Amino acid sequence: MLVVVALALAFVWALYRSPFGRAMDAVRESELLAAATGYNPMRIKIIAFTIGCLLAGLGGSLYAHFLLYIAPFSFTFWESVNFLLMNIIGGSTSLAGPILGALLLTPLPELLRAYVLWQQVLYGLAFMVFMRFLPDGVTPLCVSAWRAAAGGLGLQAGERAPDPRSGS
């Protein structure tokens, strides 16, 4: 299962860095500008939707494999809300965002098991707070904290720390 996830991540990473990925970014930022530069926004949206459906189907099949069988109650409305919140909280503009959101939200139902009646309220509150104050999710905060920590070490982006064994 981990191999399939790694392959899907590699596919999305390659897609982000491809000319088509840049075209998707252009359409996301400004359809009018993308159309003016020669892209067909409708075609790009349809292809992006198809790729998204393919990845969602792959994720659903892995989830069903994890559950060992499929029943209608396996995929509830609240599961969909949970997956949506993973994207919102992590941030949907980078590849690391949904992964970070999943890492943050996966243990949440277990932690809130004693407060089942409050789960939906907390999900709604998290949705509103993140949409209002952190529309790009927590990933930009993590990146800026990482850069600040690296800057505190006197490093530039992409530069390695000196080897402590070298003595210099």
Structure description:
The protein has 168 residues and is an all-alpha fold. The protein folds into 2 domains: 1-70, no CATH class; 76-157, no CATH class. Helix content is 71%, strand content 0%. It is built from 9 helices and no strands. The longest helix has 27 residues, at 41-67. It is globular and about 45 Å long. The termini are far apart. The mean pLDDT is 86.
User: What is the overall pLDDT average?
Assistant: 86
Shape: globular
Q: How many discrete domains?
A: 2
Order of helices and strands: HHHHHHHHH
The oligomeric state is single chain
Strand content: under 5%
Question: Uncertain regions: pLDDT < 50 for 5+ in a row?
Answer: none
Structural class estimated from helices and strands: mainly alpha
Layout of secondary structure:
Blueprint (H helix, E strand, L loop, with lengths): L1 H16 L1 H11 L1 H6 L4 H27 L9 H14 L5 H10 L2 H4 L4 H18 L5 H14 L16
Summarize the structure.
The chain is mostly helical.
